[in-house]
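Thread amino acids onto this structure.
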C-alpha cells in the first residue's frame, strides 16, 4: 500500500475495511497487511473495489485465510541446513495459481545464488544473502506471474500468530 507514491495510515485502512463490512479489522505494521474476520464469500474483490472507490486508484490484493497462510508456511521447501547457509526465506503470494508454463519460466530464473520453488499460489525464494544484493530478475517475476506481494517467512509467522489470537 505505501509504495509508488501512495500513502495511507493504518487507521484509514482499517476504517475503509470496516466500512466494507469486514469484522475485527486490524493492521499489521505499516505495510498494507490487514487481518479480519467475518467476510463475504469474495473478500478479495470486495477489498479491491472498496479500496479503489475510497482511494481513487486500483489496489490489487492477495487475501489468504489463516489456514492458507499456515499451509503456505508449512510448505516451505528448504532444509534447515540450506536455510542456515543463506538469507531469509521470502514468500511471494500470487494472485492465481500459475500455469505449468509460468512455473517453468519462473524456475528458469533460479540460480545457485537464488533458489526458487512454487507451490500453489506461493513462490518461495531463498536468496544467498539479502534480497537487496540478489541478482534475481524480480521484474521478470512480475511479467511471468502477474500481481504479487512478498513477505519474509518471519513476517508471515508473526501475522499468523496474530490471526490465531483474533
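Threaded sequence (166 positions):
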Amino acid at each position: 500500500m505505501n509504495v509508488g507514491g501512495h500513502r495511507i495510515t493504518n487507521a484509514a485502512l482499517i476504517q475503509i475495511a470496516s466500512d466494507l463490512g469486514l469484522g475485527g479489522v486490524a493492521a499489521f505494521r505499516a505495510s498494507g497487511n490487514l487481518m479480519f474476520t467475518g467476510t463475504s464469500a469474495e473478500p478479495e474483490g470486495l477489498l479491491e473495489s472498496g479500496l479503489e472507490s475510497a482511494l481513487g486508484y486500483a489496489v490489487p490484493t492477495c487475501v489468504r485465510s489463516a489456514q492458507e497462510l499456515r499451509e503456505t508456511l508449512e510448505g516451505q521447501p528448504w532444509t534447515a541446513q540450506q536455510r542456515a547457509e543463506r538469507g531469509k526465506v521470502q514468500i511471494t503470494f500470487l494472485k492465481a495459481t500459475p500455469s505449468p508454463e509460468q512455473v517453468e519460466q519462473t524456475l528458469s530464473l533460479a540460480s545457485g545464488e537464488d533458489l526458487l520453488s512454487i507451490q500453489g499460489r506461493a513462490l518461495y525464494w531463498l536468496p544467498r544473502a539479502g534480497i537487496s544484493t540478489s541478482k534475481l530478475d524480480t521484474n521478470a517475476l512480475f511479467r511471468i506471474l502477474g500481481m504479487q506481494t512478498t513477505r519474509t517467512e518471519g513476517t508471515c509467522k508473526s501475522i499468523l500468530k496474530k490471526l490465531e489470537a483474533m
